[in-house]
Amino acid sequence: MPRDDRTDLLQGTLELLVLKTISVEPMHGWGITQRIELISRNILQVNQGSLYPALERLKRKGWIRSEWRLTENNRRARFYHLTAEGRRQLERERETWQRASAAVNWILEWAGGLP
Amino acid sequence: MSVFARLWARVEAIVRRNKVDRETAEELRFHLDMETAKLEGRGLTPVEARRRAQLALGGVGRTLDAVRDERGTNWLEHLPQDLRYAGRRLARSPGFTTVAILTLALGIGANTAIYSVVEGVLLRALPFADASRLVQVWETDRKSGTTREPASWPDYVDFVARARSLDGSAALMGSEVTLTPSDGPAVRISGMSVTREFFPLVGVTPLLGRLFGPEEDRPAGPRVVVLGEGLWRSGFGADPGIVGRTVRVNDQEYQVIGVVGHGADFGLDQIHARAAYHAPYSGTGEVGLWTPLQAAEADFPRSTHPFFMLGRLARGVSVADAQQELAQVAQELELSYPNSNAARGVHVERFQDVVFGPSRPMMLLLLGAVGLVLLVACVNVANLLLARGTARAREIAVRGTLGAGRGRIAQQCLVESVLLAVLGGVAGTGLAWLGLKLLLALAPADIPRVSEVGINGPVLLTTLLVSLGVGLVFGMVPTIQAFHVDLMGTIRGESTGVSSTPAGRRFRAGLVVTELALSVGLVVAAGLLIRSFWSVLQVNPGYEARGVVKAEFQLPATRYPEDYRIWPAWKEVHDFDRRLLEAVRAIPGVENAAIGNANPLDAGFTNSFTVPGREAEARDWPEISIRIVTPSYFPTLGVASISGRQLSDGDDAQAPMVAVINQAAARRFFEHQDPVGQQIRFWGATRQIVGVVGDERIHGLTLPAPAAVYLPTGQAPRSSVVFARVTGDPAAFVEPLRRAVLAADPGLAVYAAEPLTETVRESQGQRRFAVTVLSAFALVTFLLALVGVHGVISYTTSQRTRELGIRMALGATHRMIAGLVLHEGLRLALLGTGLGLLGAVAGTRLLSGMLYEVKPLDPLTYLAAGTLAVLLAVVAVWLPARRAARVAPSACLRAE
Fold first, then answer.
1. What are the residue ranges of helices labelled H in B542-627?
2. Residues of B with CB below 8 A from A74's CB?
């Protein structure tokens, strides 16, 4: 029973973006959405409803961990950070992504004939 | 994160799910607050900002649910709801529910019953310490080819002294003893004489008092006895002050020094039964009286082999190591004592193998068979669920379109089937309780510790696990089916679900073929065992058990002195024999009476012998079975006279010594010669062979008769069985026979008084047990399979109503329609039967050890099982075929 095709499609990408975002510094869920939108100059909109299940999934796979900390405004928030395994996973996914996107670009720029 | 940490996170998520949920909720609230604040900063009103923030997140509740799904605890949240729902669904179709639960109860119950026997007998820890290191040290005899003989006392002493591979050992010998209570008649009790090392070796400690010490276990030591718990309770009212009192055993006073608990005699019965020449010393229950062995070479020379040797392997020593070392010792003994030890070796065998060896294959066979019963029951229930699945497709489609995920729907299907299976398990436990009573009533007494079998915690736990497993397995079928429901088509009423598609039909047909095949396999196995049993019953054992009654007793040496200086002129024994025969012959209806030293199903004992003039040759001869009988034995038992004369009343202590041999002995030792007139020598006496008689199968119905020599009681006094050939019902003569023995000597304990046919019957106890239980399983499985065939054909026929109606409308006759349905059923029946027979070809190899005069590939059995299966399957298909043919075409066309 398909639930939401769009999330399914973006799932892998969302995980990659989350891993990359918190690889710089530990961050809470809302912060992650804001950071992705900011860095992508608002091109990428994170579906907030699928962010938290994705975080739970990454946690279960052992790639990230969470802890409760205070924000600059003195509010309790759950911060996520990468584990060593998560860092390795980020590298793997980055390579996969770059190879795939390069391939897609070649095809899009292909004007006929063999290279 | 390590696997363990991940697992822990999982467990924590389940156990502390409230806390985890609260934290997630707090996290989401924080998110909402931040998002709201951001939107407010862009100039929205607080209410509007909140609304938009919530919209973006998709609702706290839904997100919380999605997070929980990721965490994998959601199934637990839904479980109570699903259980209630499944319960309601089952209650709504009581017919289906009853049939399914009963079928499962049958399968699970049969498994529980058999498993409780296997658990109690094979799986439970042995009552002995270091049981895995205990070994039985047998002597072997290359001359006779025996591999399981007891040891002689001097051999035992030498083995113990020289063996480094054993760090403990004990010798023991079972006997039947007579206990004379101060009030009441004498009773026969199982006795066991053991060296003082025995109890410490197996780790048995006394319940009361103490065990044997060195001052007691020495030749001519004091008469002391340790009671078994059973006898202590039944015979002495569990008297706590029993230690120090005396009891009368074999007409002598013994002082009680201690009591040992149940289980102290574990396996000893089986050891005796396994010995090549010895029948079970009792087989009638727990050892009641333990005495110190007090053996000395003077009483037990190297040439007699009465003692069973138990050893404990030293740490790190394998059975093969011990075998090698002890074989070396045996070789040394052969060189040192060629007269008694020539051709003698050792055979080291694990104690557990000795005890369980004979019954393990049968247990495993029954366990395997009962597993097939359960499998077929599951297939039947899966089939029922499939048929229901069609009706259910619409409901699943509705739930699916309303947003239920695959996981949720699967969980609901599984919860329902597991609930069904657990209900079946509960009902099955009730059935198992009844079935176990039946099983234990049928079970032969020679299965080790069968009396301890019961439905206990481990058995119930296994039943629960089996039920859950069964529920999950057959629940997979409707679950997978649910995944294939075409949502929109079903809701519009265009499709009736997967089981009416060609693929669904094939799947159901596959299930039916499978269960038919399994049941045909079981029927073949049962058929082979039944044929074997029949062959055993057809065996001519060399004696005629029908019309014979027997009773056994032991003459105490106190009143029947064994004075070897005047042997065989033991007046007291001869007088007793005369009195007894007179008393028995005086019973109205008794045609003939005889006395012997063993009944025809008792292997008795053997002795080495020579033929004067052939001493060199005789050194390589196996020992000969010695049977001591009154001359009336042969006509009373119906043993044929082959040549020469039989024994006569004139062959008494004063007359020349004579003997009669059986045909096996004549063939083995007097090939191409007439044995009559030749001589045979043992026990320091030479006897003339005066006749040859037919072979009695004294090693059991299925084993050929060994060479045997018959001596007249007048020339070799030793009486312990009385036989009477009677007219009328032998059972009516049991009591008169017992009274006749007591008339000859009121102080004797009379036991094993029964018609000889009963003794024969009991000797086949394991075979009868296996045949009966396996046949019952085969029958049940086969009936279940037929129900399955009938159900599937009925169902597919009803699914084809429209098609059949069109065919009829186009001119097909009733006969053609019936033929169409029959054809489909026959195809399944042939396929299932064929596969079952093929499976049996592969599987019945495992049976070969339990078959007698029937090959595992016996064509008759396969033909009969195959024919029966196809015929009955056709009958099962006949009903739906007839129904299909009778339906009016118009009704068919309106049906959908």
1. 571-585, 615-618
2. none
